[in-house]
Amino acid sequence: MSLHSTRRIAVDKQFLTTAAAHVGIAAGAAAFAGAALCGATALFLNEALNAGSGASGPSGSGTQFAEQLWRVFLLLTSLPFSGQLRAGLETIGGFVSTGDEGFTIGVWPLASLAFVGLASVLGAYLLERRHPQRSGGMRAGAAAAAGGAFAVLMLLVAAPGVRFDAPGAAATVSALGPALVPISFTSVFASGWLGRSLATRKQHEIAPTGRPRSPLARELASLATDVGIYAGALALTGAVLGTITLVLVFLQAGALSAQLPMLLAGAPHAAFWALIFAHLGAVTVTVPYTAVEGISVLSPELPFAWVSVLPVVLASLGSALLIGVGRARTRTPELARIWRLPAAVFVLWMLGSLVFLPVTVSGSATVLGFTLGELELAARPAFWTPALFAVWALAVELGAWALPDRASALTPRVHALATRIRTRLGGFESPASAAWAGTAPTAVPSPSTHQVPPLLEPARDAAGLPSLPMTARTKRRLRIAGVCTTIAVLVVTGSAIAITSVNTQRGAVAKVRAYVEAIAAGDATHAGELVDPNVETSQRDYVSDAMLASASERITVLDVVETELSPAAPSTSWFEDPAKEEYGSGRERRNVQVTYRLGGTTESTVLVAERIENEFLLLETWRVVTPLVFESVAGTSHAMDFTIGSVAATPGPVETLTWEGSQPVSWVPFSAYPAIYPVTGTESTFYSVASEPVRVGPVQDEHVPERNLIYTPTEALTEAVNAAVTAKIDQCVLSTDASPDGCPFSTYVSGANTALSWQVASAPTVSVSETSDRFEVEDGLVSYSYTGSSGRTSAGSSPIRTTGTFTIVGDAVTIEFS
């Protein structure tokens, strides 16, 4: 065997060995990431892994549990490379079904994916340093071989899936998806090629080959350095913002330790979304059967989140300075290259926005035979996010052209620090740029090399002009400009903080709070100025200061928050069904939920606030559209005047149907602010009055109205009615008719002109109704006698039995027989 063949076999063996080792490192990292994700999920879901332990024997239960645990581990190991879980649910009897495809849960565990990528980069770097490949093609081939083997391994890992069996239901979960193979191959191949390239670069720095790179290679290296600097600055900023976000979420969740691992797993998503918000971007949230909502740094759900814009501005300025000190000086921005960084950023964010960052749950389901249709619950960056980041990258490009000169004049130390950092990073475009940065001055030989040492010539910019030192006047102007810029930034920042704070006090929630607090304080005049109560003129007394002042208890405001709940439809009448009321002004509207306590119970209602024209262009102005006025009724057992709060009411005729049953009542409807108002009846010697206050608020079962006034007749009324009945009967017996008109007795005699003589034989008993203005007369007897045409005298008797009504006018009682 020849020496060339021996070397060829050794090289091939080394190629395969390093590729296999690379696969092993990546697989080990993936297994570790899967185990960590499995543990975090188990801790978060508590006993979710006990779903498959339904066997009767202990050994069988342990075996099933171990098998399910192993399948869940494999599932979560392959999840970072598929980005989705397909879940199907079937129940016996077909009550719930998600079909063959089921629901697709789309979420990329970026923490696990990043861990595998870093492990792959480090492993490839160490392998290349220990067993270097002969050429770039061999390095790419080794990375490709490792990526292909890893993709096949992940495909085999994801194939088993998980099945959970429970009484009456079965659920299947699988991580197989179209993205599994390409993502797993690309992640290992790209990270492996990067690690091997870094190792080769280190070797070239130690022992340079002296072979110059092509212009295209230099341009690509420069672009890669610029992208790396910008990405590193954003990564540092995102890490800070993401950490703050996680701390806030952790504290708001009650500091539950079980949620901490899952929060750490979602840390990359938090960092990326915090970066999107800080770049003035938005995240769209899709919820079934509701409109798509966009959340941005200016949303009321994220108060003071606009402060996150400041770290991004500082990171952009810093990365622009680092990029700029590595470039040659030019009089104007180079239009031929200004688009490169924005284009690269646009492509990278397009990939992230479409693939890695969205969190979605989509699919269809059938419940009790009814198909719910295609459902989607998602949170994803707004579609214009890549373009927004490209604009920021363009600003960084312009800053890279403009900042180095200004930084050198205003803050030499910052410029020197940026130069040292860029020197360590490398990537100077040309010797001229290195000279501009102060790291490679150029020497000019003297006319006679034997007389004086070489002189240093000032570095020249790309236009060929010497870069002369700045004069004191120029430096002073630049300093003044810098001070003015700093003052302007501070003024703008302070103004933004002040305007935001003022607008917080002038927003929809603040306006509603002022309104309900005015009602709680009894200031109906101020409440009416904020919101017209929208009641008839005849009802205005019920929404007055006197009415609220008469309340035995007013509301106590507990909370006022913005909500997604819709306001309750107003009713046209207290006794009728609610009627829809549309609000169609086209202006921005917010629903605000008001929670208050009244009468020992807590009630909530939703008010609508509408934004109107700003004051001084910047100060928000809102007005409340829906008044906090409720319709109510007060009932009385007798049609006598009474008072609701401070307003006198005149009831109508008494009816005989109430919520208590067949009870007489007269209802008086009215509209008022929520409170408990006293109801006062008419006091007299004939009735004693029992009163109950009326509660004004949302109509609820426990607040069904009863009679607020119940009149009970006294002995004086019975005596007065009895006296009136006696007087009426005494008047009736004076009649000579057989049937006295309007009297409770009568008889029949022949002859129309026969005169009768009446006399009370037995006084009747009078009973007064306790629930109405009626009375009953019974057990009385009258006798009569008359002389017929033959001259014969006849006698007889007639019972006194009838009913009637009585009327009270002042201290007098009048009656009328039925």
Automatic annotation (TrEMBL):
Keyword match Isomerase: no
Keywords annotated in UniProt: Membrane, Transmembrane, Transmembrane helix
Protein name per Swiss-Prot or TrEMBL: Uncharacterized protein
Top-level taxon: Bacteria
The UniProt record lists the keyword Transmembrane: yes
Transmembrane region(s): 21-45, 105-127, 139-159, 239-258, 270-292, 304-326, 338-361, 381-403, 480-499
Region: Disordered, residue numbers: 439-458
